[in-house]
Amino acid sequence: MKESSFGDRFECAVAIAERLSSDAAFDRVYNEEIRAHSAQHWTPVAVAARAANLLTRSGATRIVDVGSGAGKFCIVGALTTGAEFIGLERRENLIRVAREAAATLGAARATFVHSNVDSFSFEGFDGVYLYNPFYEQVSKHIVLIDDDIERSGAAYRYFVRAVEEGLRAHPSPVAVVTFNGFGGLMPRGYRFMGDEPAGNDRLELWTKLGPQSR
Fold first, then answer.
1. Confidence class of residue 2 from pLDDT cuts 50, 70 and 90?
2. 122 and 166 Cβ atoms separated by less than 8 Å
Protein backbone atom coordinates (compact mmCIF):
# COMPACT_ATOMS: atom_id res chain seq x y z
CA MET A 1 0.00 0.00 0.00
CA LYS A 2 2.78 2.40 0.92
CA GLU A 3 4.71 1.50 -2.22
CA SER A 4 1.67 2.23 -4.34
CA SER A 5 1.17 5.57 -2.59
CA PHE A 6 4.81 6.48 -3.11
CA GLY A 7 4.58 5.46 -6.75
CA ASP A 8 1.52 7.60 -7.27
CA ARG A 9 3.25 10.61 -5.71
CA PHE A 10 6.36 10.03 -7.79
CA GLU A 11 4.36 9.82 -11.01
CA CYS A 12 2.50 13.00 -10.05
CA ALA A 13 5.78 14.82 -9.37
CA VAL A 14 7.17 13.71 -12.72
CA ALA A 15 4.01 14.86 -14.50
CA ILE A 16 4.18 18.27 -12.81
CA ALA A 17 7.88 18.65 -13.65
CA GLU A 18 7.07 17.88 -17.28
CA ARG A 19 4.31 20.50 -17.28
CA LEU A 20 6.75 23.10 -15.95
CA SER A 21 9.40 22.26 -18.53
CA SER A 22 8.02 24.65 -21.17
CA ASP A 23 5.10 26.91 -21.97
CA ALA A 24 3.86 24.49 -24.62
CA ALA A 25 3.76 21.69 -22.05
CA PHE A 26 2.08 23.82 -19.37
CA ASP A 27 -0.49 25.32 -21.72
CA ARG A 28 -1.91 21.91 -22.52
CA VAL A 29 -3.93 22.33 -19.33
CA TYR A 30 -5.99 24.99 -21.18
CA ASN A 31 -8.33 24.71 -24.12
CA GLU A 32 -7.36 26.06 -27.54
CA GLU A 33 -8.99 29.45 -26.99
CA ILE A 34 -7.09 30.10 -23.76
CA ARG A 35 -3.82 28.79 -25.23
CA ALA A 36 -4.15 31.25 -28.11
CA HIS A 37 -3.72 34.15 -25.65
CA SER A 38 -0.72 32.69 -23.84
CA ALA A 39 2.07 34.48 -25.71
CA GLN A 40 0.59 37.94 -25.14
CA HIS A 41 -1.29 37.66 -21.87
CA TRP A 42 -0.06 34.85 -19.58
CA THR A 43 3.27 34.96 -17.74
CA PRO A 44 5.77 32.48 -19.26
CA VAL A 45 6.60 29.51 -17.02
CA ALA A 46 10.26 30.44 -16.57
CA VAL A 47 9.38 34.06 -15.73
CA ALA A 48 6.66 32.97 -13.30
CA ALA A 49 9.02 30.61 -11.48
CA ARG A 50 11.71 33.28 -11.19
CA ALA A 51 9.26 35.99 -10.07
CA ALA A 52 7.83 33.67 -7.41
CA ASN A 53 11.36 32.86 -6.27
CA LEU A 54 12.26 36.56 -5.96
CA LEU A 55 9.16 37.22 -3.88
CA THR A 56 9.63 34.28 -1.53
CA ARG A 57 13.36 34.99 -1.10
CA SER A 58 12.30 38.48 -0.02
CA GLY A 59 10.12 36.97 2.71
CA ALA A 60 6.73 36.81 0.99
CA THR A 61 4.49 33.94 2.05
CA ARG A 62 1.08 35.18 0.84
CA ILE A 63 1.24 36.66 -2.65
CA VAL A 64 -1.46 38.33 -4.74
CA ASP A 65 -1.33 38.47 -8.54
CA VAL A 66 -3.29 41.47 -9.82
CA GLY A 67 -4.98 40.54 -13.09
CA SER A 68 -4.23 36.83 -12.79
CA GLY A 69 -5.91 35.85 -16.06
CA ALA A 70 -5.82 32.10 -16.60
CA GLY A 71 -3.88 31.62 -13.36
CA LYS A 72 -0.51 30.65 -14.80
CA PHE A 73 1.71 32.69 -12.45
CA CYS A 74 -0.16 31.58 -9.32
CA ILE A 75 -0.13 27.92 -10.34
CA VAL A 76 3.57 27.90 -11.22
CA GLY A 77 4.36 29.76 -7.99
CA ALA A 78 2.35 27.33 -5.89
CA LEU A 79 4.08 24.35 -7.53
CA THR A 80 7.61 25.73 -7.20
CA THR A 81 7.58 27.47 -3.80
CA GLY A 82 6.00 27.01 -0.39
CA ALA A 83 4.02 30.26 -0.54
CA GLU A 84 0.29 30.82 -0.92
CA PHE A 85 -0.84 32.52 -4.13
CA ILE A 86 -4.10 34.38 -4.67
CA GLY A 87 -5.08 35.50 -8.16
CA LEU A 88 -7.24 38.62 -8.47
CA GLU A 89 -9.17 38.70 -11.74
CA ARG A 90 -12.12 40.78 -12.98
CA ARG A 91 -13.21 38.30 -15.68
CA GLU A 92 -15.36 35.63 -14.08
CA ASN A 93 -14.82 33.15 -16.93
CA LEU A 94 -11.04 33.31 -16.38
CA ILE A 95 -11.55 32.61 -12.68
CA ARG A 96 -13.24 29.36 -13.66
CA VAL A 97 -10.44 28.52 -16.10
CA ALA A 98 -7.77 29.20 -13.47
CA ARG A 99 -9.51 27.16 -10.78
CA GLU A 100 -9.89 24.19 -13.12
CA ALA A 101 -6.24 24.39 -14.16
CA ALA A 102 -5.07 24.60 -10.55
CA ALA A 103 -7.18 21.58 -9.62
CA THR A 104 -5.90 19.59 -12.59
CA LEU A 105 -2.27 20.31 -11.70
CA GLY A 106 -2.74 19.85 -7.96
CA ALA A 107 -1.81 23.44 -7.09
CA ALA A 108 -3.75 23.55 -3.82
CA ARG A 109 -2.06 26.76 -2.64
CA ALA A 110 -3.25 28.69 -5.71
CA THR A 111 -6.71 30.23 -5.25
CA PHE A 112 -8.56 32.82 -7.30
CA VAL A 113 -10.84 35.73 -6.41
CA HIS A 114 -13.30 37.46 -8.73
CA SER A 115 -12.88 41.18 -8.03
CA ASN A 116 -11.65 44.51 -9.37
CA VAL A 117 -8.50 45.95 -7.84
CA ASP A 118 -10.30 49.17 -6.88
CA SER A 119 -12.42 47.23 -4.37
CA PHE A 120 -9.63 44.96 -3.11
CA SER A 121 -7.24 45.56 -0.22
CA PHE A 122 -3.59 44.49 -0.31
CA GLU A 123 -3.62 44.26 3.48
CA GLY A 124 -2.85 40.72 4.62
CA PHE A 125 -0.51 40.08 1.67
CA ASP A 126 3.26 40.34 1.93
CA GLY A 127 3.91 39.83 -1.77
CA VAL A 128 2.44 41.41 -4.92
CA TYR A 129 2.98 40.41 -8.55
CA LEU A 130 2.13 42.79 -11.39
CA TYR A 131 2.36 41.82 -15.06
CA ASN A 132 1.23 45.14 -16.54
CA PRO A 133 -2.35 44.09 -15.77
CA PHE A 134 -4.21 46.93 -17.50
CA TYR A 135 -2.12 47.40 -20.64
CA GLU A 136 -4.73 45.54 -22.68
CA GLN A 137 -6.98 48.59 -22.32
CA VAL A 138 -4.63 50.96 -24.15
CA SER A 139 -2.40 48.83 -26.37
CA LYS A 140 -3.09 48.66 -30.09
CA HIS A 141 -0.58 45.86 -30.51
CA ILE A 142 -2.16 43.06 -28.50
CA VAL A 143 -5.37 41.16 -29.11
CA LEU A 144 -8.18 41.67 -26.61
CA ILE A 145 -8.97 38.53 -24.63
CA ASP A 146 -12.67 39.21 -25.12
CA ASP A 147 -15.12 42.09 -25.52
CA ASP A 148 -15.65 42.54 -21.76
CA ILE A 149 -12.80 45.02 -21.44
CA GLU A 150 -13.07 48.29 -23.34
CA ARG A 151 -9.99 50.00 -24.67
CA SER A 152 -9.99 53.23 -22.69
CA GLY A 153 -7.19 55.48 -21.52
CA ALA A 154 -9.35 56.81 -18.71
CA ALA A 155 -10.14 53.32 -17.39
CA TYR A 156 -6.47 52.36 -17.69
CA ARG A 157 -5.36 55.35 -15.62
CA TYR A 158 -8.10 54.70 -13.08
CA PHE A 159 -6.99 51.13 -12.38
CA VAL A 160 -3.29 52.02 -12.37
CA ARG A 161 -4.04 54.64 -9.72
CA ALA A 162 -5.97 52.03 -7.73
CA VAL A 163 -2.84 49.86 -7.63
CA GLU A 164 -0.68 52.83 -6.63
CA GLU A 165 -3.11 53.69 -3.84
CA GLY A 166 -3.30 50.08 -2.66
CA LEU A 167 0.47 49.84 -2.47
CA ARG A 168 0.75 53.22 -0.78
CA ALA A 169 -1.75 52.19 1.89
CA HIS A 170 -0.09 48.84 2.57
CA PRO A 171 0.59 48.82 6.34
CA SER A 172 3.22 46.12 6.64
CA PRO A 173 6.41 44.75 5.02
CA VAL A 174 5.79 43.75 1.42
CA ALA A 175 7.75 42.70 -1.66
CA VAL A 176 6.57 43.63 -5.15
CA VAL A 177 7.73 42.11 -8.43
CA THR A 178 6.74 43.66 -11.75
CA PHE A 179 7.08 42.18 -15.23
CA ASN A 180 6.73 44.72 -18.05
CA GLY A 181 5.95 47.22 -15.28
CA PHE A 182 2.41 48.10 -14.23
CA GLY A 183 1.86 51.49 -15.83
CA GLY A 184 2.41 53.55 -12.71
CA LEU A 185 5.05 54.65 -10.22
CA MET A 186 5.98 52.82 -7.05
CA PRO A 187 4.84 54.93 -4.09
CA ARG A 188 7.21 56.60 -1.68
CA GLY A 189 8.57 54.16 0.88
CA TYR A 190 9.31 51.37 -1.61
CA ARG A 191 12.96 50.59 -2.24
CA PHE A 192 14.16 49.39 -5.63
CA MET A 193 16.15 46.21 -5.03
CA GLY A 194 17.19 45.49 -8.61
CA ASP A 195 16.07 44.13 -11.95
CA GLU A 196 17.05 41.41 -14.40
CA PRO A 197 16.20 40.29 -17.95
CA ALA A 198 13.19 37.98 -18.16
CA GLY A 199 11.11 36.83 -21.10
CA ASN A 200 10.48 39.77 -23.43
CA ASP A 201 11.26 42.41 -20.80
CA ARG A 202 12.57 42.62 -17.21
CA LEU A 203 11.59 41.65 -13.69
CA GLU A 204 11.87 44.42 -11.09
CA LEU A 205 11.91 43.82 -7.34
CA TRP A 206 10.75 46.43 -4.83
CA THR A 207 10.37 46.15 -1.08
CA LYS A 208 8.66 48.20 1.60
CA LEU A 209 9.75 47.72 5.19
CA GLY A 210 7.35 47.93 8.09
CA PRO A 211 7.81 50.51 10.88
CA GLN A 212 9.47 47.90 13.11
CA SER A 213 12.15 47.30 10.46
CA ARG A 214 13.19 50.90 9.94
1. very low
2. yes
Give the tens place of pLDDT for each residue, 6-50.
Answer: 556 666 677 778 889 899 999 999 999 999 999 999 999 999 999
The DSSP output letter for 105 is H
Distance CA 82, CA 148 (A): 34
Give the strand pairing for 110-114 and 62-66.
unpaired
Query: In this structure, are residues 156 and 138 in contact, taking their beta carbons and an 8 Å threshold?
Result: yes
Distance CA 45, CA 19 (A): 9
CA of 136: how far to CAs of 56, 107, 149, 177, 182, in Å?
Answer: 28, 27, 8, 19, 11
CA 95, CA 98: separation in Å to the nearest integer? 5
